[in-house]
């Protein structure tokens, strides 16, 4: 019984520290959002084709389009090496170099980095700017240590919405790989950011939305969804 109470106390202390850290914005990541510039007409893999009105719970797929230090202007890059297209690979501006080099480990089972789900991480959604029919999302590592933010190019974010009873429920489920062999984690050093894109759904139910990653949540923002997005999909065979 004592072990249970100690475990509960530790979890409460972590959540409290995250809450205080979210309010302490005097240093590091600026209050105003950076200007995000899409250099290559990036598409958001969170959409299935051009479907922006899913009829049921969908799988999230948040990939990093920028990793590095925060700046007033952020240039998005195609995700390397997982999402690079043949056309972009031939662009001479990159000189065939990987702008994310140094941000992922070469060991699939690397364990020396804490996972983002278990640490305090600031999540900010810029609803004033639309890129690829999506809102830019900034993940800021306020920790003193480098953390692992994803495995195999997919950040474990998912979107939640307030239902008609005022409860937060997921409208996306975390993406799960069919095979995890050879997947290497991306890392995020202290005081640096990752930028990804959150889909802008369309529907007849107006509500509040937020992004969740482990114990961390973004501030709520307004959106519209189909109420059926709370429900799992049922495939008709």
Task: Describe, in plain words, how this protein is organized in 3D.
- The structure is a single chain.
- By secondary structure, the chain is mainly beta.
- The chain contains 2 helices and 16 strands.
Please outline the helices and strands.
Layout: H1 2-23, E1 35-38, E2 58-59, E3 66-68, E4 73-76, H2 86-89, E5 114-115, E6 121-125, E7 134-141, E8 147-151, E9 158-162, E10 168-170, E11 172-173, E12 185-188, E13 193-199, E14 205-213, E15 216-217, E16 221-225
Parallel strand pairs: 1-4, 2-11, 5-8
Antiparallel strand pairs: 3-13, 6-7, 7-13, 8-12, 9-10, 9-14, 14-15, 14-16
Quick overview:
With 237 residues, the chain is mostly beta strands.
Low-confidence stretches: 1-15, 20-27, 81-95
Strand count, sense and barrel status of the largest sheet are: 5 strands, antiparallel
Instruction: Indicate the mean pLDDT.
Output: 77
Task: Note the gap between the termini.
Answer: 48 Å
Secondary structure category = mainly beta
Provide the succession of SSEs. HEEEEHEEEEEEEEEEEE
